[in-house]
Amino acid sequence: MTLAGSDLETDYALDGAAIAHFTEHGFVKLKNVLSPATVAAYEPEITGKVIELNTQHLPMAERDTYGKAFLQVTNLWQDSERVLEFVSSPRLARIAAQLLGVRSVRLYHDQALYKESGGGVTPWHADQYYWPFSTDRCVTVWIPLQETPMEMGPLAFAAGSHTFEHGRDLPISDESEAVLQQALADQDFPEHVGPYELGEVSYHLGWTFHHAHENRTGTPRRVMTVIYVDADMVVSEPVNSEQKADLAAWLPGNQPGDTVSSPLNPILY
């Protein structure tokens, strides 16, 4: 049993309209996925682990664009039983499987993304640039651990951009921000952005372009993410150095042509 009761374990009533929105636009925001009590029960542990495991100690002014965007700590579940409970949530994983239209999903990895007070923009990018996967059946759940108003830098999506192949070869950078901002506007992919209520989460496909604005508040924007892949996902040949690094880090022992199956990738639903 999880700390805050059963809402990490029970089913969420995902309706057809939400699935249709995700299929058409490459993302969906869902209200009341987690109760305020659940967020409150797990946020201190997640935040504590971010503080403990964070390796970014440069002053903001001395960081590059990526470094200013957020503090990034991965696979917290390996360092905390409580975070493991959160990341392993059947509720969150089942939503991912339903949205992807697959029978079962595995964990790829988790990421805490904390945008500090005064943190800069997260440039336009698509996550799957970094992932050595043979299909697009992979999705990230973005879970704010507080109410997230516009001035805190909530995630913003280019609706429908999961079908747009231009810019997929760009890592998060000043170049990706400039090139994709123009290209997405030229192709009329509208930007969807809005605040997140406490307990509201979003899911986006690996190829959906997204970004976030600065955190103009005095409070860190605390976000936990979990990346899910189709349980039958086949590892692809890496096409860049980042995918080679991800293959080694998050799929140890797997090789191109294998089905994702390393000890770091348990089936979650």
Give a topology summary.
Blueprint: H1 16-25, E1 27-30, H2 36-53, H3 65-69, E2 71-74, H4 81-87, H5 90-100, E3 105-115, E4 122-125, E5 138-144, E6 155-158, H6 174-186, E7 191-193, E8 201-205, E9 210-212, E10 221-230, H7 241-250
Antiparallel strand pairs: 1-8, 2-3, 3-10, 4-9, 5-8, 5-10, 6-7, 6-9
Description of the molecule:
The chain has 269 residues and is of the alpha+beta class. It has one domain (16-250): q2cbj1_9rhob like domain (Jelly Rolls, Sandwich), CATH 2.60.120.620. It is 28% helix and 20% strand. The chain has a six-stranded antiparallel beta sheet with strand order 1-8-5-10-3-2. A four-stranded antiparallel beta sheet has the order 4-9-6-7. The mean pLDDT is 94.
The number of distinct β-strands equals 10
Mean model confidence by pLDDT: 94
Q: Given the helix and strand composition, which structural class is it?
A: alpha+beta
SSE arrangement, N to C? HEHHEHHEEEEHEEEEH
Quick description:
The protein has seven helices and ten strands. By secondary structure, the protein is α+β, with helices and mostly antiparallel strands.
Task: Supply database-style keywords.
269 residues, alpha+beta, Jelly Rolls, 6-stranded antiparallel beta sheet, 4-stranded antiparallel beta sheet, 10 strands
